[in-house]
């Protein structure tokens, strides 16, 4: 019966199966996977450092650790995603087959 219960559970990388290991000994296993389908920008924004991540394969946009729900417009093989960061307007323009995704904030390109 325990085999069936454990089969559906996802195991954290920072945990072991040992019953003697306490919860305090586990470490943070947050990691970012870099690939050709992920574009990341780091930008100082109103005095704070922000990381904006765009996953081209799933069309997800993340600001720091928060998933953003942008307004997306499609035109042929190009997608334009608009979203807000605080009081600022941000836009990601991405074209299928092109690795040159562009982020602008308040119309200013971010490298």
Automatic annotation (TrEMBL):
GO process annotations (BP): negative regulation of apoptotic process
Sequence segments annotated as region (Disordered): 1-33
Residues of the signal peptide: none
Extent of Acidic residues compositional bias: 21-30
GO molecular function: lipid binding
A Pfam family that the UniProt record links to this protein: FAIM1
UniProt-listed SUPFAM superfamilies: Lipocalins
Name recorded for this polypeptide: Uncharacterized protein LOC106179473
Organism field: Lingula anatina (Brachiopod)
Gene that this polypeptide is encoded by: LOC106179473
């Amino acid at each position: 019966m325990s085999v069936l219960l454990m089969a559906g559970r996802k195991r954290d990388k920072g945990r072991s199966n040992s019953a003697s290991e306490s919860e305090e000994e586990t470490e943070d296993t947050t990691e970012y996977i870099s690939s050709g389908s992920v574009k990341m920008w780091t930008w100082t924004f109103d005095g704070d450092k922000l990381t904006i991540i765009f996953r081209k394969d799933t069309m997800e946009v993340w600001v720091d650790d928060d998933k953003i729900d942008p307004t997306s417009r499609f035109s042929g093989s190009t997608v334009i995603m608009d979203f807000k960061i605080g009081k600022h307007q941000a836009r990601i323009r991405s074209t299928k087959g092109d690795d040159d995704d562009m982020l602008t904030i308040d119309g200013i390109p971010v490298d």
